Amino acid sequence: MDFAFVSGNLGLDLAGTVGHRRGERIDLMATPADLARWTVEAGLLDVMPAVSDDELAEAVALREAIYRLATAARTGTAFGTADRETLNRAAGRAPASVRLGEHGLERGGDLRAALSTTARAAAGLLGGPQAGLIRECEADPCTRLYVDASHRRTRRWCDMRACGNRAKAAAFRARHR
Known about the structure:
By secondary structure, the protein is mainly α. Helices cover 46% and strands 11% of the residues. It has a single domain (10-175), classed as Jann2411-like fold (Orthogonal Bundle), CATH 1.10.3300. It contains six helices and six strands; from the N terminus they run H-E-E-H-H-H-E-E-H-E-E-H. The strands form three sheets. The chain has a two-stranded antiparallel sheet with strand order 1-2. This is CGNR zinc finger domain-containing protein. Residues 134-176 form the Zinc finger CGNR domain.
């Protein structure tokens, strides 16, 4: 399964590497190779980094902390101290480097630099005015969180091409039975 980058924030996209959280979970970052591929597909690094099992566990801990923090922001509850510490520890490291090379943009660094960039994006969202725009996809069984940046703040699905299309097609079929 491919990664989706539809949440409007890199931190939420990392949290979105688990699908169907309330049902039969689908973990798209089950191996170190999955995480390495995610860093490239997310546009954080140009070359897949080496990833150890310990680093995968660290990334999964960050992913789950971001999900819980974003859920707290969405529901108006207090942030968990341990989750804030996990996020802040990752964000406090040096981020991935970005430079203009001879042939365009070049992104570099190791896995921890990529996770730092991701954690910084999440911290900026959760600590800023857009935290109140975090929503959960209404399509069943999707549980992806996203930033509702729509004009009227009425977006219902994480992605119109996937969840939104399925929901509208199901509604159409139901009306025409």
